[in-house]
Amino acid sequence: MENKNILGTEKISKLFIKFSLPAIMAMVINGMQNIIDGIFLGNFVGSNAMASVNLVQPFTQLIIGTSMIISIGCLSFVGRTLGEGKNEEAQNIFKTSLIVMCISSGVITFIGIIFNKNLAVILGANEVLLESVAIYIKTIAIFAIPMSLMFLFGFVDRVIERPEVYLKGSILSVITNITLNYILIKKLQLGIRGAAIATGMSYSIALIIVIVPLLNKNTVVNIFKGKFDKSTIWPVIYNGSSEGVTAIAIATTAYVFNMAFMKIAGEAGIAAFTSINYISQFGTLIMFGISDGIGPIISYNYGYEKHERVSHVLKLANKIIFIIGIILFIVLFLFGKNLVSMFMSGNKEVLDMAVSGSKLYATAFFFNGFNIVYSGYFTAIGKAKESIIIAACRGIIFVVIGICILPLIINIKGVWLTIPFAELMTFILAIKLIKKVTNIEVNKAAA
C-alpha cells in the first residue's frame, strides 16, 4: 500500500513541530478562556466572583470531558483506521461520533438549564456564592453543543493534515473572549453572567473556523459522507475514556480542594487556590498540547505498523517535556507573586496565601508532563486501560489519598503538596506500565 499521508512519511522532528506547536498553542489558548474570566472577575467584580467560577469548574469539565472522550477517541480510531488504509470505515467512525456528540451535548444543555441551582448546591456553593454559581451554570450550558463540536472538528482536522486550522480557531476564540469580557464585565457590568456568555461565544466563533476543512466533500473525512455505525460507538468511547477520566479528575480535584480550603481558610482559601490553579493550568496545558500534537502521528504510524517511528516520537516528546517542566518550576517558584497579582487587586490575605502555596505546588511540574504524555500515548495506540489507569491515578486516586492524609500532618501545606504527591506516585506507576507494554510489543514483533 502506497502511503501518501505525511504522518507516515515525513521526518519525525518536522512532524513534531508541524503538529505539536499548533496543538500546544491551541491548547494553551483554549485553556486561557477560564483564566481570562478569572482575571476580569477578580479585578472588576471581586474574589468571590472568581471563587464562583472555580466552583463551576466541575460542570464545565462535564462539557469539556464529554467532548474530549468522543473527540480523542474519534481521532485515535480514525487515525489508526486511515493508517490501515480503511478510508470508508474512518468516515463512518467520524459520522457516528458527530451524531453521538450532538446528542450527549444536548442532554448536558438540558440538565444545566433546568437544574442549575441544584447543581450549584452539589458543587459546594454556600449562600454567598450560590446565585452566581447557578447563573454561570445555566448560561454556559446553552453553549454546550457548539463547544463540543468545536473540539471534535478541530481534533479531526489534525488527522486530515490540517493541524493549523484548530490553532486559527483558537486564536479567534481567545480574541473574542477578551473583547466580550471587557465589554460585558467592565463596561456593561454583567458580572459572572457576562463571563459565561463571553466564554460560550468564544468557542462558538471558533467552530466556524474549524468546520471549514470538513465541508470539502473531497477530503478523506468530511461531514457529508459516511453513515451511522453503532458498532463504532464503544471503540470511540473506550479509546477516549482516559480523557473522560482526566475531565472527571479535574472536576474531582477542584471539588476536593474547594472543600479542603473552605474548611481551612474559607472563601479566601478558595480564591488563593483558584489563582494558583489558573497559573498551573498554563503549564499543564503545554504538556497536554504536546500529547495532543503527537497523538495523530503515533496513532497513524501504529496502524501503519511503523513502530520505530512511534518510539522516536515518544522519546522526542520526553526530552521536550523534561526541559519545559524545569522551566515551569523555576518560573512559578521565583515569580509566583507577580503571576498571582494578575488575579488579585488589593487582597493581601489571598495574595500571601497563594504565593506561599505556589512554591510547593510548583514541584508537580517535574512529573506531570511525563504522566500526561504517557496517558496520551496509550490512548493513541489503543491501550485505553493503561491510559485510564494513569489518568485516574494522577487526578483522582492519589489526589484523594493525598488530600485525606497530608493536611492532617502539615495542615494547609499538605493541601498544596497533594498534587505534587499525586504526580510523583503516578509517574512511578507510569514507568512500570510503559516497560510492560514495550516488552509485550517487542515480543510480539519477534514472534
Annotation keywords:
single chain, 447 residues, mainly alpha, 15 helices, 83% helix, 0% strand, globular
The major β-sheet equals: none
N to C succession of SSEs: HHHHHHHHHHHHHHH
Query: What is the rounded Rg?
Result: 21 Å
Q: How many distinct helices?
A: 15
Main structural class: mainly alpha
The average pLDDT score comes to 83
Shape: globular
Uncertain ranges? none
User: What is the CA-CA span between the terminal residues?
Assistant: 23 Å
Strand content: under 5%
Number of strands: 0
Number of domains: 1
Binned, the helix content reads over 70%
How does this structure look, described?
The protein is 83% helix and 0% strand. The chain is mainly α. The longest helix is centred in the middle third of the chain and has 71 residues, at 233-303. The two termini are 23 Å apart. The mean pLDDT is 83.
